[in-house]
Amino acid sequence: MTDDPGVSGATALPTELLPFGWLIGTWVGVGVLGHPTVESVNIGQEVTFASDGRPFLSYWSRIWSLDEAGNRVAPLVTESGFWRPQPGNKVEVILAHPSGHAEVWLGDLTVTGLENAVITGARVELTTDVVVRTSTATAYDAGQRLYGLVDGALLWAYDIAAQGHPMTSYCSARLTRA
Known about the structure:
The chain is mainly beta. The protein has strands spanning about 1-5, 10-15, 25-35, 40-50, 55-65, 70-85, 90-95, 100-115, 120-135, 140-150, 155-160, 170-175. A ten-stranded antiparallel beta barrel has the order 3-4-5-6-7-8-9-10-11-12. Strands 1-2 form a two-stranded antiparallel sheet.
């Protein structure tokens, strides 16, 4: 563990989380959501990654539709879960959605920039390993996500295979630290 009093109230960040420490905090920004089955809409998003000192990150994301002036109109997507770092800069992510979906994602972290022992550039590429849904949830078969630290911003993109469509862009955003 390493001392870091600024990490979501925790006094120490487990060694396993060090390569993922750049994610910790609350990020806010705007993007777009759309799919062949969903009309394209501008979105606002808030994402929080936090540590309580154990070797995982808690994750919470909320997305709203925005009007022309950038004001929140209606909630669209909520998801929460855990990011579980694994040896070799691998990660397992478990997410749950109130829409009736739960997913297990597997992925890799690549550090692309390091300055004075601080990560200044990185990306996490995730692919679904398992997608389960309730009997009332829409058909959703697989997903791919990319999270990247670029010039201090968190950029991310989410592609899905759903409702009979092949893997297609679904959502993306550019977020900055709140």
